[in-house]
Structures are given as C-alpha cells and as structure tokens.
Amino acid sequence: MAYAYLFKYIIIGDTGVGKSCLLLQFTDKRFQPVHDLTIGVEFGARMITIDGKQIKLQIWDTAGQESFRSITRSYYRGAAGALLVYDITRRDTFNHLTTWLEDARQHSNSNMVIMLIGNKSDLESRREVKKEEGEAFAREHGLIFMETSAKTASNVEEVNKRPFSMFIIFLLNRIIYLNIHLLVYLPYAF
C-alpha cells in the first residue's frame, strides 16, 4: 500500500508500564493480560490516515529494564516521535520520567515530538499518580499529555494519531518558513 509519509516512533518508560500492551492494542486491536518482558525491542507497524494522507507508522517498543538502556538509545535515531509512558498505579514509574525524558532529548533530534502517557486508566481505584500531576509534568517539559488504558483501548487510537498530526503540521510550517526565508534572501545571493 502506498503512503505519503513514513514515521518512526518509539515507546519508552519503565518496565511493566504497559508499553507492549499499548503497541499490541494499536496494531492488532487486542489486549494480552499476561505479557513477557520485552528483550531489547519489539516492532509493529500500521497505516493511518491524517488529513486525507496515508501515513505508515513504524512503532518500536523498547525494553524498560536498565540493562537494555544502551540498546534502547540507538532507537532514538531517526524517530519522529516518542511515547513516554508511566503507570498511574505505580508512583515510582512517574518519578523516573525525568531520567527517561533527559535520555530521549539527549539521543534524539530536537524536532522529535514527545507525548507523555499515563497508562492503566482503567485501574482508577489503585491510582497513585493524579491526572493533574501528569498534566503539570507535561506542561513543565513542553510535552503533549494523555491518559490511556491498553486494556480497554481508551484513547489508544488518539495517542497514536495525535503526535503525528502535530508533527506533520510542524513539518509543513517549517517548509513554509524555509520557502519564505529563501524567497526573501535568495535574490540577494546573486
């Protein structure tokens, strides 16, 4: 199938936050309650349509264990976006977000769109991280924020489309800016 754009993005965060389940829900529209730990990376792909354009998403689900961090870092290269995921029922996964974010910004290009995801919103009775805390973290660090549930598929489609809609808009604005910049300065170059 032909596509107008190909975007690679990665899913990062601590082990057990539901990164692989989010990938499975988005690519296969199913939830697997028991999932083996990711060793290195897992890969998925899916075609989506945004503003009438076919877009192929390559999704790289990274291992959350510290022992795989050096492998994970190599997958930042060329990524248009990242989903930074924490588990709303585990405060420690939220507390580690700054480390993950620093890693992402250090090893990726400056144009990468990062979306903060509070996963497992179906477990409201076990919540340890308030939604407002996630919103505040995202605002403070210039991230997009959303809560999801890989189990119920709540907001999973939106999460995977929204960052790339923003990325396409960013690219188009950049192209327009460069064209205007070239039109203004090009005549003086000769």
From TrEMBL:
SUPFAM superfamilies in the cross-refs: P-loop containing nucleoside triphosphate hydrolases (SSF52540)
Transmembrane segments: 167-188
InterPro entries cross-referenced by the UniProt entry: P-loop_NTPase, Rab_GTPases_membrane_traffic, Small_GTP-bd, Small_GTPase
Recorded topology in the membrane: Lipid-anchor
A single GO cellular-component term on record: endomembrane system
PROSITE patterns named among the record's database cross-references: RAB, RAS, RHO
Alphabetical list of SMART domains matching this protein: RAB (SM00175), RAN (SM00176), RAS (SM00173), RHO (SM00174)
CDD domains: Rab2
Location in the cell: Endomembrane system
The entry's keywords: GTP-binding, Lipoprotein, Membrane, Nucleotide-binding, Prenylation, Transmembrane, Transmembrane helix
Signal sequence, start to end: none
GO function terms (MF aspect): GTP binding; GTPase activity
Family: Belongs to the small GTPase superfamily. Rab family.
PANTHER family: DRAB11-RELATED (PTHR47979)
Protein name, per record: RAB2A, member RAS oncogene family
